[in-house]
Write a structure and sequence with these properties.
Length: about 500
């Protein structure tokens, strides 16, 4: 059970503590932030409202801890990460419980997220030893006009302090995807869970339980910190703090504001998408329907890589819409504890936003394949057919179980709509013609294009990146490790040219 057993130390009465200098603390502010259960719409948990002064102390401790950690052998860093991964998987049940109550994630998917997170941490440890264990030697005579009298030794060194800000929908997995690479690379890590973000207050308590697993693994004091609080009070203070050397953020358009304020700090950002699904006439229509339902409606559509718009050739549209509707009718709608397919969206404001998109489509003549139904934060799955470009749902990201279908008469029309979006995270193409698939993929302005499958983030070692307003930089384990390091060179100058004679 959350907050009990090995996790008892992280709870102070009814308020979860924050983590600094290797211990769990109550904030001197005397204030807390409520975590509202999306299903009951009642306060489920409370977390500390940290102050700016407490953030300053965290940064001071992280700076000291990082210097010692950078001198820790790679194998030792990896050993501790493996230990944390094992503890995380051992205690998957209470962490999954938090995910169910905080973000209404179906119970089975909540457990899967925690196990996947443990696997990610272990893989990161192994990959880091390989990547960071290699350096590079350059010799000067490869450049015109030079003799071989200079040897350049280059290696990857840590950036310093990494600020990690995960989103509400994967507060454990997308936290460790930042924590693991930062630590194996020799950085200190400050985690700011998604409390008081623009979308929600959810995700913090699961993240706090996850951080405790790293504490139990025995990482040095001050190396890992986790501060909670209102974004309005410590959000900008954290992202603009002079002690931060790197920011890894996953979320919405808050990231654009962060990027404008961060200055010279390296950024890694994934900021959402309007992932298009282009369906050609020769596609396997049963496969298409299955992937539209899976891609568009799993976790109630609250995924950056969810299918957000279907662009389908007119000649096959009726058949696919019929197949999708048949599958939607079989989805189980209800509370996450019952492992329902469709669960409540994360907040009332999110549900209101989704409803606004739906009402706009209704006023402008979209075809409702199901009756629109909502109870509190719970919205039943809805397919909107005959959507036109003048409707908001054609362009805006609903982050909910509502999916628009736009009928097209040519592949070029579909590509044009995809590329006209200000987003460019992922997309997918369904066709039996691999040549067409490659040509369309190359034409789509998206960070990743899936062929004959719905968009997806992962496996976690695959590159994951967005174009345009969907993000900056690339994620995936290898890319994240490289991003959280910098190259340092040492040049050896010889008194005279030296050549190896073999």
């Amino acid at each position: 059970m959350a907050g009990t057993g090995v996790f008892a130390d992280i709870l102070d009465g009814e308020v979860y503590k924050y983590y600094a200098d290797g211990e769990w603390r109550a904030s001197g502010s005397g204030k807390s932030v409520a975590i509202v259960n999306p299903t009951t719409r009642q306060t489920q948990y409370r977390v500390q409202a940290c102050t700016q002064e407490e953030v300053n102390k965290v940064m001071e401790g992280a700076k000291v801890a990082q210097k010692a950690w950078a001198r820790t052998p790679l194998w030792k860093r990896a050993e501790l990460l493996h230990k944390a991964a094992a503890i995380l998987k051992e205690h998957k049940a209470p962490i999954a419980e938090c995910l169910v109550k905080e973000i209404a994630k179906p119970a089975k998917d909540a457990v899967t997220e925690v196990v996947r997170s443990g696997d990610l941490v272990s893989y990161t440890a192994e990959e880091g030893v390989r990547i960071l264990g290699e350096g590079k030697l350059l010799v000067s005579d490869s450049f015109p006009g030079n003799e071989r009298n200079k040897y350049c030794l280059s290696s990857k060194v840590p950036l310093g302090i990494v600020l990690a800000i995960p989103p509400f929908n994967y507060p454990v997995n997308l936290a460790v995807s930042k924590i693991g690479p930062a630590l194996i690379a020799g950085n200190a890590l400050v985690l700011k869970p998604p409390t008081q973000c623009l979308l929600c207050n959810q995700g913090a308590v699961a993240a706090l339980h996850m951080v405790h697993c790293f504490h139990l693994a025995g990482f040095p004091k001050g190396l890992i910190s986790c501060v909670t609080g209102k974004g309005s009070e410590i959000g900008d203070f954290l992202t603009m703090h002079p002690g931060v050397n790197c920011i890894s953020f996953t979320g919405g358009d808050t990231g654009i504001a962060i990027s404008k304020k961060a200055g010279m700090v390296p950024l890694q950002m994934e900021l959402g998408g309007k992932d298009a699904c282009i369906v050609l006439e020769d596609a396997d229509l049963d496969l298409v329907a299955a992937n539209i339902v899976k891609g568009g409606f799993s976790y109630s559509g609250q995924r950056c890589t969810a299918v957000k718009v279907v662009l389908i050739m007119e000649t096959v549209a009726d058949t696919v819409v019929e197949k999708v509707n048949a599958k939607l009718a079989k989805l189980k709608v209800g509370p996450p504890e019952d492992n329902c397919d469709i669960t409540p969206v994360v907040t009332e404001s999110s549900a209101n936003f989704i409803e606004g998109l739906v009402m706009d489509a209704k006023e402008k003549g979209a075809t409702f394949c199901q009756e629109y139904r909502r109870e509190g934060n719970l919205i039943w799955p809805l397919l909107l057919d005959h959507v036109r470009p003048d409707m908001r749902i054609a362009w805006e990201e609903p982050f909910g179980p509502v999916l628009p279908v736009i009928r097209i008469n040519s592949v070029e029309e579909g590509i044009h709509h995809c590329n006209a979006s200000n987003f460019g995270l992922q997309g997918c193409v369904f066709t039996r013609d691999i040549n067409k698939a490659i040509m369309i993929s190359d034409a789509m302005e998206s960070g990743t294009v899936q062929i004959n499958s719905a968009p997806a983030r992962g496996p976690d070692h695959f590159p994951f990146q967005g174009l345009k307003d969907s993000g900056i930089g690339s994620q995936g384990i290898t890319n994240s490790i490289n991003m959280m390091t910098k190259v340092k060179s040492t040049v050896i100058n010889l008194p005279s040219p030296s050549y190896t004679m073999g």
